[in-house]
Amino acid sequence: MNILIVQRDREIQKYLKKGLKELGYTVEICSDRDDAYYHIKSDNYNLAILDIDIENGNGIELCSEIREINKKIGIIFLSSENDIEKKVQSLDSGADDYITKPFSFIELAGRIRAILRRCKGNINKTENNLTIKNLKLDLLTREAKRGDREIELTYREFALLEYLIRNKNLVLSRTMIREKIWNMNYTANTNIVDVYMTHLRNKIDKGEEEKIIYTVRGVGYILKG
Questions:
Q1: Are 141 and 116 in contact (CB under 8 A)?
Q2: Which DSSP category does 52 fall into?
Q3: pTM over 0.90
Q4: CA-CA 20 to 30 A from 139: which of 73, 95, 153, 155?
Q5: Which CATH architecture has domain 2-120?
Q6: Angstrom distance (rounded) from CA 63 to CA 23
């Protein structure tokens, strides 16, 4: 999922980018109206985090412009402006939510997930869900379920499972997995793949009659479905 951050405070920019990337989102940053407008016109974003006070423009006006370009994008204002009138203007301009600084990142992350869930009905579900047998990955909310059982996955575990599902019934070597998930494009003396696969298999297959993740001795792993 792609998120655009439009904030003029460089520390806030770095803080948001780091936190959101750790949650698995793809993040772009800009601080002024023109750059933000260019990004929205050029790329497909699922959500934008705006401030009222931005360089070379006004965040509320930018919100209206973004909404004209993309009716489906989620928009959150993250601003130090605590004036009720400003909040109402922001929401009337097309924003889905308004959070006042200082803020809790956990709360922001929760509101992002909520907005993306609401926007989900406007997006082609086949592009955002991966299903194999009774295992389902929601790429929009980054949630995993096997049957009715919800599965908590770390960012790396989610990426690993997505990679396995997209390559179902194919043997993936440890080298392939290291290169894809950890960007280790060399022969690394590490058992990181085996460690993560053990954790992942315990979460996915434990207690299930039908196992779907298998070890291929001396090579790597395969997800059968």
A1: yes
A2: S
A3: no
A4: 95
A5: 3-Layer(aba) Sandwich (3.40)
A6: 25
Q: What are the DSSP E strand ranges found in 113-200?
A: 129-132, 135-138, 143-146, 149-151, 172-173
DSSP 8-state class, residue 95: -
Contact 49, 182 (CB under 8 A): no
pLDDT digits (tens, 9 = 90+) for 162-173: 999 988 898 888
Contact assessment for residue 92 and residue 98, using Cβ atoms and an 8 Å cutoff: no
Q: How many residues does the chain have?
A: 225
Query: Any residues with CB less than 8 A from the CB of 132 and at least 6 apart, and which?
Result: 165, 168, 212, 223, 225
Q: Name residue 184's amino acid.
A: M
pLDDT tens digits for 15-73? 999 999 888 888 999 999 999 999 998 888 899 999 999 999 999 999 999 999 888 89
**1.10.8.60, 3.40.50.2300, 3.30.390.30, 1.10.10.10: CATH of 128-223:** 1.10.10.10
Give the span between the Cα atoms of 122 and 115, in whole angstroms.
12
